[in-house]
Amino acid sequence: MLYRESGQFSTSYPADRRIFRLYQERWAFYLLLAAAFLLIPWLGNDYWFSAILIPFLVLSLAALGLNLLTGYAGQLSLGSAAFMAVGAFAAYNSHLRIEGLPFLLSLLLGGVVAGLTGVVFGLPSLRIKGFYILVSTLAAQFFVLWVFTTFAWFSNDSSSGVITAPPLVILGHDFSSPQGRYLFTLTVVVALGFLAKSIVGSELGRNWMAVRDMDKAAEVIGIALPKAKLLAFAISSFYLGIAGSLWAFCYLGTVEPHGFDLSRSFQILFIIIIGGMGSILGNFLGAAFIVLLPILLSHIASGLLADTIDAGQLENCQKIIFGGLIIFFLIKEPDGLAKIYQTCKQRLQVWPLRF
Amino acid sequence: MKSTLTKFSKLAIAISIGAALTVNAAHAEGEQYFPLQSYRIGPYAAGGSGFFGGFIDYLQYVNLKDGGVNGVKLTWSECETEYVVEKGVECYERLKQGLNGAPAAATNPLSVGIAYATLDRSTADKLPLITINHGRTDSTDGSVFPYVFPLQLNPYSEVSAIINYIGTQSGGLEKLKGKKIVTLYHGSPYGKETNPILELLAKKYGFKLTLLEVPHPGNEQQSQWLNIRRLKPDWVILRGWGVMNPVALKTAQKTGFPADHIIGNIWSNSEDDAAPAGNAAKGFIAITTHPSGTDFQVLQDIKKYVVDAQKGNLEDPKRFGTVYYNLGVVNGILNVEAVRVAQNKYGKRPLTGEEVRWGFENIKLDDKRLAELGALGLVQPLTLSCADHEGGGAVRFQQWDGSQWHVISDWVQADRELLRPIIEKSSHQYAKEKGITPRDCAKES
Question: Which residue of B has its CA nearest to A49?
Answer without folding.
Answer: B93
